[in-house]
Amino acid sequence: MTVAQETLNNPSAGSGSLALNLMKLRTFIALFAVLIFFSLAAPNFLSTANLILMSKHVALNAFLAMGMTFVIVTGGIDLSVGSIVGLCGMVAGGLILNGLDLRIGYTIFFNIYEVMAITLLVGILIGAVNGLLITKLNVAPFIATLGTLYIARGLALLSSGGATFPNLVGRADFGTQGYAVLGAGRLLGLPTSVWILAVLALAAAYMARCTPLGRHIFAVGGNERAAGLSGIRVNRVKLFVYMFSGFCAAVVGLVVSSELMASHPATGESFELNAIAAAVLGGTSMSGGRGTIGGTIIGAFVIGILSDGLVMMGVSEFWQMVIKGLVIVIAVVVDQAQRRLQQRVALRQMARLA
């Protein structure tokens, strides 16, 4: 491979462009900017209690954003994650309170670990439905996941007639107590959800960087046809990323219902917006082929801090939605600008080497 070809494959190599470097560091810059702004504008923003509370909110965004990152890297989108959160929360709440009614005079009650496992399986199965619609029936990802968004939300509402499953303390004789530890417990002073996030993020980052599956995910997003011709099973890769996204959404459903000790069918509404915003802000390209778990986690911090800071400043929820929408648009615009600048830098570098 010639030096010119290496430069084309890695456009940033040898680049001294200040603008390009700033674009690459945009997530860190945004993180420091929101930290400084809210530490000055919002009283007690950096207090220990508030930082712990923000860490919980960041964890929820990060779980969903990790799954969304892999989906977007393959060139897809998953609009159903918020509804999966709501449905999985209702599944867990229903199993804890009422068990599984077999309609033949018998009801099965599962212990708390079995409830969690079943809930995670539900999320994975919905992700599999998304993946099969996209790979086997050739439904566009936007349409497929929009459909499952409505289906999952409808099932969540049907499970209780639109009511809440309250007081999920469980029963000792059925082994369903201890659910609160998942969302409200702490380990070494940090919420349990933060430790779960750390483990899952490390596993996802390792998979993305160090395993054949991770390389296949990026190959599919970079050039799906070339990936298929090189022997990569494109459909299996896509099926996996949607199943992983469903798994991450199920984790959030468990954490939220555990923290509240109640399940509500409307839980998770608009969560998909935060997930997309965190992934895109973290450097995941909406055109596919590029993204990192580390960048996504930082993007989740930015979105979480932005949301909590606006609440502390008394900004209305309506304006918060406007601001989050602007963040997504600006992040995509900057990403496109970075790609164009990288291409121009590569062409100039190749011209000098010619």
UniProtKB/TrEMBL annotation:
Q: Which InterPro entries match?
A: ABC_transp_permease
Naturally occurring in which organism (per UniProt)? Labrys okinawensis
Cite a GO CC annotation: plasma membrane
Question: Can you name this protein?
Answer: Sugar ABC transporter permease
Q: Which residues cross the membrane?
A: 27-46, 58-77, 83-100, 112-133, 139-158, 179-208, 239-256, 293-312, 318-334
Keyword set for this entry?
Cell inner membrane, Cell membrane, Membrane, Transmembrane, Transmembrane helix, Transport
Could you tell me the superkingdom of the organism this chain comes from? Bacteria
Membrane topology reported for the UniProt record: Multi-pass membrane protein
Q: Where in the cell is it found?
A: Cell membrane
Keyword Cell membrane attached = yes
From the UniProt record, which GO molecular function terms apply?
Answer: transmembrane transporter activity
Q: Does the keyword Isomerase apply?
A: no
